[in-house]
Write a structure and sequence with these properties.
This protein is α/β, with parallel strands linked by helices and 182 residues long. It has one domain: Vaccinia Virus protein VP39 (Rossmann fold), CATH 3.40.50. The protein is 29% helix and 26% strand. The protein is built from five helices and seven strands, in the order H-E-H-E-H-E-H-E-H-E-E-E. Strands 3-2-1-4-5-7-6 form a seven-stranded mixed sheet. The longest helix has 15 residues. It is globular, with a radius of gyration of 15 Å.
């Protein structure tokens, strides 16, 4: 697995040796980061189900100034920590070895980009999206990036609207912003 753009382009990342964590394909990453480029520049990022940290690290490489990474699996967290240290990004990140829902309660400032790539076919998206809305964790012009299984369904709170919805292979990519009513 590698970083595909920005100042760390072509640097390799360690992958999590697990059947519950999957690597995001380069084609999917390229699509995501082309879509959200304006929100990244100088922005704050939350990588909520971080795994190896590939998405959040890509965001920093492409111009985000700071990222919070949340991961509760010990093996994945150790890989994430190693990737951050190898790229010397320690001053640009905060690592949280905690459950995603519990961690959401601790954030006080909104994020410009929130990356949500939980295990496919889990109930995690249905649980975290209302908490993000309730705690106003997305900045006014921010974007939520959701990666989920192609036929996976979950409720989108009224506070958000789907700006883009694209299927790439087995992955659905959804971009959410605040709805006009929020």
């Amino acid at each position: 697995m590698r970083i595909i753009g920005g100042r760390h382009k072509r640097r390799t990342l360690k992958e999590v040796p697990s059947h519950t964590t999957r690597s995001t394909k380069d084609r999917v990453k390229e699509t995501i980061f082309n879509m959200i480029a304006p929100a990244l520049h100088g922005g704050r990022v939350l990588d909520l189900f971080a795994g190896s940290g590939a998405l959040g690290i890509e965001a920093i490489s492409r111009g985000a100034t700071f990222a919070d990474f949340v991961e509760k699996d010990k093996t994945a967290f150790n890989v994430l920590k190693d990737n951050i240290m190898r790229l010397e990004m320690e001053n640009e990140v905060m690592l949280h070895f905690k459950d995603a829902l519990a961690t959401l309660q601790s954030f006080k400032e909104p994020f410009d980009v929130i990356l949500l790539d939980p295990p496919y076919e889990s109930d995690l998206l249905a649980a975290v999206l209302p908490k993000i809305a309730e705690n106003r964790l997305l900045s006014e012009d921010g974007v939520i990036v959701i990666l989920c299984g192609k036929n996976e369904s979950f409720p989108i709170p009224d506070a958000f609207q789907i700006k883009k919805d694209k299927t790439i292979g087995i992955t659905d990519l959804k971009l959410l912003t605040w709805s006009d009513q929020s």
